[in-house]
Amino acid sequence: QVQLVESGGGLVQPGGSLRLSCAARGFTFSNYAMSWYRQAPGQGRELVARISSTGGSTSYPDSVKGRFTISRDNANNTVYLQMNNLKPEDTAVYYCNAAYASYRYWGQGMQVTVSS
Known about the structure:
Elements: E1 3-7, E2 10-12, E3 18-25, E4 33-39, E5 45-51, E6 58-59, E7 68-73, E8 78-83, E9 92-100, E10 103-106, E11 110-114
Parallel strand pairs: 2-11
Antiparallel strand pairs: 1-3, 3-8, 4-5, 4-9, 5-6, 7-8, 9-10, 9-11
């Protein structure tokens, strides 16, 4: 059974940091590119970070570049998102995504709220 189990979300003050984790089960993790998306209320789902299957390539939109870092541990089937200098506009539900060929898997999503 395929599972992407996210953890690490919550409430943080502006300027603070959070580290999100996504543990994968039920598929060959090292074959898959992994991504983090987010969706704020009333908005579409936005890609915030992507990492290649080997971890050798990463990409970010300008909105998070320099503040967010994606990484992965293929030995432990886990992908991470380190988020620094968080801003209120980073408030959203964050989703983990796995992609390989025509296969796409999603986590259940978790709330990140940046507020004083």
